[in-house]
């Protein structure tokens, strides 16, 4: 294979659920000859689209993996990174966005820009991903691609510009007029694989001319050459394409293509567009932190011969064993190389290197800079950086939110217990927002994550992929405790039992802070000997693990120690740890501790007739309604609701709206629990403690 | 609307001292400007000013998705906190959120009747009681006197003042202070206060076209 990064495209396809992402991907893989027959999504043949290869996903109709699929188109190598569309899995979305260089925004020609498209688009813009758009389902009744372009401009602020106009629409949708070549394109053959190019139909000429002019106008903002050529009326396809590419790369233009994935129309021109307008790896600047050099940002170079820097962005247990998807940013990763995981310092020898396309694979031997591939049998967590042994770089870390909900899982028997441990060890590596631990007081295995659905999916995967027989407890909200004012402590720990005694005094104050935990030593003159300062820090930190109100972790506390006392014989590491723990509790009680609860951002889509009822249902759940979006027949309601109040909401919503409404939620922030609710929680916690003892 | 339009040079100066008290319940104010010359931005500051005074603000926006309106708020608040070097935006945010309600409609679907239904949904269930209403994006060239008088009746019934943005066009640039642009001249009687925004270099000039001078009100 000829290795030329200029001919590589790492892209993501983003869409509102049901816009046709899976169908489009399926068609792309068909035209690039990665698959040899087209199966429709949720098709009757039981085969289904290749991209959603996890059965569970197929059943739920959502995509939760971000596997990279490889294909080739006209000499270009395209990696499609599957960006999950569901809000519950934001960490996966963010990670996928890191490794892709360009995006295809898929929109439905009828539904247009919907509220979820805005979420997806915002992620793209946060990572400054250049985009092209594909308006799908032009064969559907009510298709109106120009309205969608208008929405792209107005609702998403894209400088969206039509690259094609439709020939017929709805059931009469026949093909497209390409505004660059000014030709009509039709898609013949049983699967639209033969493209027939013809003159523009008479009746569409004027319209095509007008759109072509707008296109040239818009593109000439990004190219002097085009500007001049336009004045001389000598615009060539190459000049125009270059100008559009310039505009797209700086996110100044969003070229819009149209078609129907389902009816096999317009997919090949979209693939051409991916190669023409979306960035090659070298167009994008990527940075890593130099861990040997105070975490200075280093620009990475798409250079095969430089030291290796690569990011493991996805782990997957497939049919062939443990797979690690990896993107190489600098250097080359080859079979037989020894590389270092910069988080753990562990050395790894590379075995097989492959390209994956959905659930088939192909041996490739090496992955050069700019490319994406997969490794076998590498032990790491997703998000880890690998480098050559001579450097220690880390790709900038992504923010990983703390879990907000937990659930006890109980194995039915010993065999299940073993299977569960295996499953958990893998899931927690794949997904940093999913955690598992054993509660030492009850002996239960607890899993925690970002929402009910998030946990449900893992429980189902345990049952399905690991055949583990489990039952689950009630979901528990992950509360937190924090303090609201400054308070002092001054505690002397003294114990005299026979032989060596214990002695330590710790004094200072604690106060609220934005970070989770801050420890500051302001002791002068050695009131506490230097060797015991870290014992104090340990003691304080340990106290943060379990609050006194509900027993949940404490967050947002700054500890300052400014005085203390020691004993030449009786002071020890243990004594100062104990003194600090007690000192903490002394101060904590006085610092007006409060309970924090996770607040979810909830979005309900409902027929407008039920708007009032839905708002009422959210209001009853201590929800704060941010607003409503009235779109004629349907409405969107945005609210912030405590997670604790959201259990069972799907049932309420269903029965209140005749099953016509749906909702999504995602973690937003932690906020203080109202006094009356807090009192109730504390009472309950106390009762349970009593029962347990 | 691009982010740039949110930048208004020291807008709070005008807002804080004057506009907050300009209108009584059931009274209407109009904010006139050409496309992209600061209407929405001005309205946002008006909203924040009222919110910071603890007033319940109903922000109605036609032709924009709710997510975008929410973003404007985040953006403006960030800017203000940068400008005034506030460091506890979070506290401010938590303080004002319960007082804000956003409603968006498609331009073509909006009607007084629809708004009335929505308002009743809110008040009957005790969810939100607006004390100030901001209406952004009402197409005045397609709005007649009947619908405006219905809106006025609604405002009186619920007891709130309302600010409207009005997009003007190049040709009706006003020369004299008493000139009322043609876009709303046919219904200027509905408005107690009319202000015109005019960008002058990097600043935006706020000119009172109709209504008492603020200092006399205060
Ligand atoms: N009429 C029509 N239906 C389509 C088209 N593309 C996809 N669909 C259908 O829309 C539904 C959702 O498609 P899918 O690809 O699963 O969307 P995803 O949720 O974005 O992955 C399926 O029933 C598809 O058969 C299209 O171009 N035209
Ligand atoms: Mg799908």
Most extensive chain-chain interface = A-B, 26 and 32 residues
Tally the helices of chain B: 8
Distance between the termini of chain B: 33 Å
Which small molecules are bound?
Answer: guanosine-5'-diphosphate, magnesium ion
The biggest sheet of chain B amounts to: 7 strands, mixed
Broad structural category of chain B: alpha/beta
Query: What would CATH call the architecture of the largest domain in chain A?
Result: 3-Layer(aba) Sandwich
For the terminal residues of chain A, how far apart are their CA atoms? 69 Å
What is the overall number of helices of chain A?
16
Helix content of chain B: 25-40%
Summarize the structure.
Chain A is α+β, with helices and mostly antiparallel strands and about 700 residues long. Chain A is about 30% helix and about 30% strand.
List its salient traits.
heterodimer; A: alpha+beta; Rossmann fold; Elongation Factor Tu (Ef-tu), domain 3; Alpha-Beta Plaits; 8-stranded antiparallel β-sheet; 7-stranded mixed β-sheet; 16 helices; 29% helix; B: alpha/beta; disordered N terminus; binds guanosine-5'-diphosphate; binds magnesium ion
Plain-language structure description:
- The complex is a heterodimer of chains A (693) and B (218).
- With 693 residues, chain A is an alpha+beta fold.
- In chain A, the strands form 8 sheets. Chain A has an 8-stranded antiparallel beta sheet.
- Chain A starts with 7 loop residues before the first strand and ends with a helix.
- By secondary structure, chain B is an alpha/beta fold.
- Chain B has one domain (3-7, 23-210): Rossmann fold, CATH 3.40.50.
- Helix content of chain B is 38%, strand content 22%.
- Chain B contains 8 helices and 7 strands, in the order H-E-H-E-H-H-E-H-E-H-E-H-E-E-H.
- In chain B, strands 3-2-4-5-1-6-7 form a 7-stranded mixed beta sheet.
- Mean pLDDT of chain B is 78; it is low at 1-20 and 214-218.
- Chain A binds chain B through residues 113, 115, 118-119, 122, 154-155, 157, 611-612, 615-616, 619, 624-632, 636, 638, 640, 671, and chain B through 1-2, 59, 63-70, 94, 97-98, 100-106, 109-110, 114, 118, 121-122, 124-128.
- Bound molecules: guanosine-5'-diphosphate and magnesium ion.
- Magnesium ion binds at residues 21-22, 52, 63 of chain A.
